[in-house]
Amino acid sequence: MVLTVVSTLVFPVSLGQIGILCMLVGLAIAQTEVTRQIERQRRMLSQGPHITVTSVWLLPAALLVPPQLVAALGVIIYVYLAFRSWNGTRPGEAHRVAANATTMILSGFGAALAGHLADGHSVTTVVAGALGYFLVNTALTGLGLYLGDPAKATAESCLGTMDDNLLELATLCVGGLLVMVLSHEPLLSVLVILPLYVLQRSMLIKRLEELATTDQKTQLLNATTWQDGAQREISRAERENGSFGALMIDLDHFKRINDTFGHLAGDDVLKAVAAVVKQETRAHDLVGRFGGEEFVALLPSTSKEDAIVTAERIRQRISELVIPTQTNEGEAVSIENRTASIGVAAFPLDGTSIEEVMAAADAAVYAAKNSGRNRVVGSVTPPTRELAAVA
């Protein structure tokens, strides 16, 4: 607010700059109407920072008009988004819209300052402005999300995923091109609406695909997607005369966590264990949540012995976890000394289908529990399969 008032007193406004503002407002409104349903769905399905395309309009404004007009554009865009794309603001959400608008306006000021300091060729100015916008926006958004819930804040939840940041950079690239178009052929600026529509639509489709294949509590593969991937791995292993290891991971006495601390605390335990399993396996391994407190991992081109080594690392890491959470009453607690029983099987030693292999791993889990829990047990390979494997 103070910056806007000061800039109004310091920077004069020309009729041409007002014309650019009006053109950007018109483009932003048109693009909002074209993508209204897509934006609404993207916002509903968003987890963590929600990336809009407002930088496409604010970056050109930052480099072509005075700061007070940048602020005016930010306010207009966010008010219009709130009531058209987001169906108005629910009680208690008005401050979020105001905070987001403020963040974008300050990011625009950062772009204007960076562009002014570059003070060189137009390309240098655009690149500097885009970088200034990105850095200020990332810092302010990350700080706001961290202060909103410091206890559960992570680098990814505050700064966004790689895809989130690539989307923001992509919109800034479009905004940079729009700067050049507005400077030389303003009427061609309407062509930017179609690429933005395709960009937002592709991001929505990607998000829907993630929801269809991912377990939302743990962000691992869901059971159906894991099963499909495992069937493909069976086919590959058969063609190449290969092998793979399979782990069945069952948390010990998980029901006690839900009964003692509540289901939300139990969810935090599941997330922490899922993170451990993901960290201790390779990027191309298939890791999923099988249901309840059970996790599965398929390790391509891995012997049974190596799979047991991986399982032992996972078991040890789980036993070392200290998970901060809270009870249903809001009392802060730390859950630790959790254990897991892990069964290990392998293809083709323990079965020629994924059902047979996982049945062998499941039987090994029961053997682990019956022998005291908190241990890794390899399946007992039938002698006939051992002979077939040797042959």
UniProtKB/TrEMBL annotation:
One of its GO terms (molecular function) is diguanylate cyclase activity. GO terms for biological process: cell adhesion involved in single-species biofilm formation; negative regulation of bacterial-type flagellum-dependent cell motility. It holds the Pfam family GGDEF. The chain crosses the membrane at residues 6-30, 51-81, 101-118, 125-147, 169-199. Residues 242-381 form the GGDEF domain. The keyword Amino-acid biosynthesis does not apply. Keywords: Membrane, Transmembrane, Transmembrane helix. It comes from the Bacteria. SMART domains: GGDEF. GO terms for cellular component: plasma membrane. Gene3D superfamilies: 3.30.70.270. The keyword Membrane applies. This is GGDEF domain-containing protein. It comes from Amycolatopsis dendrobii.
